[in-house]
Model the fold of this input.
Amino acid sequence: MKSVCQQVTLSDRFGVLRWFQSRDTQCSQHLTSPMATTSNASLFLRTYLYFDNMNGAQYFQCGVRQLELPVELKPESRDKYRIAMTMILSQRTSDYQLSIAVAMLFNDYHDMNRFSNLTSPIEAKDLLRKYGFQVDGPAKYNVDRFWGLKQLYFDRWSKNITPEYTATLSSMRGYGPKNIRALEAYVWGNANVFPLDAPAFRALCSTGLYEYDNNIDDVRRDIEDKLSGERDIPLIDFHEMLRFIEQYTGKSKREQENIVIGWNAWRLLCSSKREQITRDWTWIYDRLIKDEDIAKQLWQFYHKVAGSQ
Done:
């Protein structure tokens, strides 16, 4: 039996261009919300295949990498402590600012064991604020997630981080379905989960695939039901694609460059191969960003924030 992807034609792939480049509401009138039917998996695949078919130089005309990450930046090459911290502390923070904050934190706290002297959530909040993380208002859950992980790490987890352990975080304050899925995807490489944060959700709604008043948890489950196990569309790539569209579209050139830099900087910071791949800017240009100027900016930004790492 053919996969759903094999049934999508080349014309289908280019048809999705109208959805995201024009953001024309008329496009959405021709689409049926997948919340109302189970026969629309191919719509997701058309969206994915269009962008997956574009090379780095064409991807929104900004020199962003292709969707396929270099092996040095894939989950199997990530420092588990670093990527876990990045995921749980990212709420209400742009990728650019997040990269600065985690770099400063990693310079002083090289691993989880350095947090052993923290004795209360108040101390944790003060520490995170010091390094530039958002900790107030809706972002207070950054503190809750950090404190919950810290407690479990030094108690029930016996100073280990495993897929089985991170799954138990759902019982801790601040760890909703999105957060658990982000850890499963970014830390452990689970290809069958779809984190779906607010920017990705807005991008989906702008296509007419969903309505803005749909429940985001229901949408997340709906996409996982349709696409989990579909070999031609890694769900984390689809999620990232949507997030990028929402953040990049309609911004100034300087803002767009910062989005690309921040988008990739935390990945470099979280790589266990970071020393080898950041010795000069050419690896970034050859493997990550097909725009020489932005590749050099990213390399300079990385070394500015990474310090002695």
DSSP finds 17 helices and no strands in the chain. Confidence is low (pLDDT under 50) at residues 1-39, 54-63. The first helix runs from residue 10 to 15. The CA atoms of residues 261 and 301 lie 8 Å apart.
